[in-house]
Amino acid sequence: MSLSRRSFLKSAAAGTLPVMMTAAASTPDTPRHDAVIDNATLRWLDGAAPAISTGTTLGVPWPRGQHRATQAFALTTADGKPVAMQSWPLAWWPDGSLKWTAHALPANAGLASGLRLAAVDKPPATTDTLKLEQRADAIVVDTGVIRCTIPKRGEAVIQSISRNGRDIARNGRLVAIAANTPDTEAANTAQHQYSSTITAVTVEQTGPVRCVIKVDGKHSTTARQWLPFSLRLYLYADAESVRIMHTFVFDGDEQQDFIRGLGVRFDVPLSGALYDRHVRFAGEHPGLWAEAVQGLTGLRRDPGAAFREAQVAGLPCPPLAQMATRVSSALHLVPAWGDYTLSQLSADGFQIRKRTKPGHGWIDADAGKRAAGSGYIGGSGGGVAFGLRDFWQRHPTRLDIRNAQTDSAEVTLWMWSPDAPAMDLRFYHDGMGMETHEQELQGLDITYEDYEKGYGTPNGVARSSEITLWALAATPSRERMVQIAAAVQTPPQLVASPAHLLASGVFGRLWSLPDRSTPAKTAIEDELDRRFDFYKGQVEQRHWYGFWNYGDIMHTYDADRHVWRYDVGGYAWDNSELSPDLWLWYSFLRSGRADIFRLAEAMVRHTSEVDIYHSGRFAGLGSRHNVQHWGCSAKQLRISAAVYRRFYYFLTADERIGDIMRELLDADAKLEATDPVRKIANAPPKGQYPARASFGTDWGSLAGNWLTEWERGGNQRYRDKLLTGMRDIAAMPHGFFNADRAGYEQDSGHLHNMTGDKVAASHLNSVFGAVEVFAELIDITGQQDFEKAWIQYCTLFNADKAAQIRALGMPHGGSTVLRVGHSRLTAYAAARTKDAALARRAWGEFFEHPLKPLRPIAVNGPAVLNPIQEVDWISTNDTAQWGLAAIQNLALIGDYLPEAK
Hints:
Residues 39-118 form the PcRGLX/YetA-like N-terminal RIFT barrel domain. This protein is α+β, with helices and mostly antiparallel strands. Among the domains are: 39-120, no CATH class; 131-268, no CATH class; 272-440 and 454-489, no CATH class. The protein is built from 20 helices and 37 strands. Helix 1 (5-12) crosses helix 7 and helix 8 (580-591) crosses helix 20.
């Protein structure tokens, strides 16, 4: 049932007395921030301190002018004990002061609450626990616990990981299996196996606490090189582990190249008795499958309690002479199990199998629902624990251990399991006769799919995966193995408090801390929580999982079928449409909730890789929403924009996301060849200009890319292009109303008025990060003409036609379908101009349409496949824009929020 503003507020504030609608005495203004912040209290994102940390890195913001570029920092515990740390700048304010700093802690450091990061006169002394040695043929990193050798050429990406002078793992390499058809039984099937070939090795960072080494290459056979990859190896002081960020780009022909397996493989030297060799697989947390290669339990004859107890615990057994003779004399007749596989082919089922050796049958060992994606193999000299993050979420996956009965086992972590059907990336339909733009637009009209032949290609999309390897001196206890698996699935992350993030003034000053000081504010805060909780639940109920899908959400609901429109053209996967990414990140900034961070993290990993092209014809562009993530022919800047990535980058200092944002810097060069308005009949002709650009979906996206590069201290050419565009828009007769579609010169960044004295506006221009980026630009540049033009646009977009005519000479003609989302533009103008009437108008717009409070209902039985919670009117467009409007209006004009009468 739809509710009015009044009934919505009353229902949310049940039990309270009605309050007359009044405005606070103060005038609206931008949020206040602390003037001085010399320190930051850090906390573990997921609450309590983790049991294990393999080393962690975080980003911390600072107010403009607070800290000079060379400022030193120190970290202490709540009781004042120093914690080792490595620091470096991530971003600067235009005056050269620090905007973001990154800080790395050693393994298992700071496992307490209340860590305090403070500016100091000079950096504290550090012990160089971490050492890096450059050799002619390899790089050697010593963490103080393990030594990792990375070759500079050849097949192996890791030559060895050793501990106490003994190799624990060797010959780490990438493997891929591909076929020319998805059908394994086809007569003409040809299958090939590929291994890694290194093309470059780069030391990206080295210091006393953390080093990062990047390995680039391709998957190769003697006949072919393809599937380019990048590996980042992260090593922290005092760590017994190596974290690996694995990225590959699909650069094949989807009609002929079908990946059947993609993984990382390494060898594990083994020694000692077979009954002292142990295998571990983590099940559903905190479950564990733990066995020995040669079992001593359950035999007809008892080897002795000491042997059984030691083997079950993973400890070395007593000397063989102490074993019961009837068992020791017949050990050669007890099978040794050499091969093990844990296969997760769906989000809801895994299976463990084992066999003695090749040529013999597999035995079903056990099964479960969701494996944590970690395992172990080792003997008396130690072994390797290994884990693949998001293991069940990104099915089909697999963990293999082979030859555990020999002196060298082989481990493979499969990111795409060979058990699964082939990775089939072909477009899902044959075009259905659409050959002209007219026919394509007819298809768009019926299914909302923007189809164009040849545009739905996966060539250039990517996927990144996180792997961690532990070089252990002995078999971990069962409890320790469970802790290792937890650290793989949910890597410990330090964060600054929401209050610190807010006071630093980053991300546009468009958000505030949650405020339930009045019934009306409580109603909005509660609705914000409900909407996030609903989507979080939908990920699980709708099984939004899988290698290519995990991290995205769906676009629009189909109430008749009780499903999201997963198979209806442009209504399926959302691909950042109308900025759900921003809704999630601003929700996290203000709340600090771990579950919001983790969903936003999965989204940024997905949208940054799968929804963006990283090579080929469309490199730097993203794909609009579709049944397949890359299926839409609208290849646009509005999807690939850095505005969706930079939150995660600055909060974590993640190098892969940093790479992706730099990939986007020259994406404007694609505007000419991939014209975003090529199918729109009434779009102004390009005329003398190389390309056409909308100020919001195109230039606004570029502005976010260039702003991020500017603050990261990169090439100043992009700062200049950004400032050029700002000046050009401000100089147009009607500012942004002339820039709805402007002529664009990608070399210089100049924008040109192509509408003359006419005006135009699009409901899409402000909903892909433009609001948020422009707020930051106005804050940091002080360009008053640009601000004036933007405030004019914000004031008039939702204004009545009479006001538009008075200001512009004519109505702007923009659609009114997103008036609630655009209420935050009105709020911004009100806050900047201190206009109380405008602030009240903004809240009127926010509540203008009957507000539907989100109240899921249960649906089960034969109407659905699985029991679900349903909101039959839901769309991600409306959810994201309502959420952003609610957050920003509360921050900008919260004092003017009316109460129910």
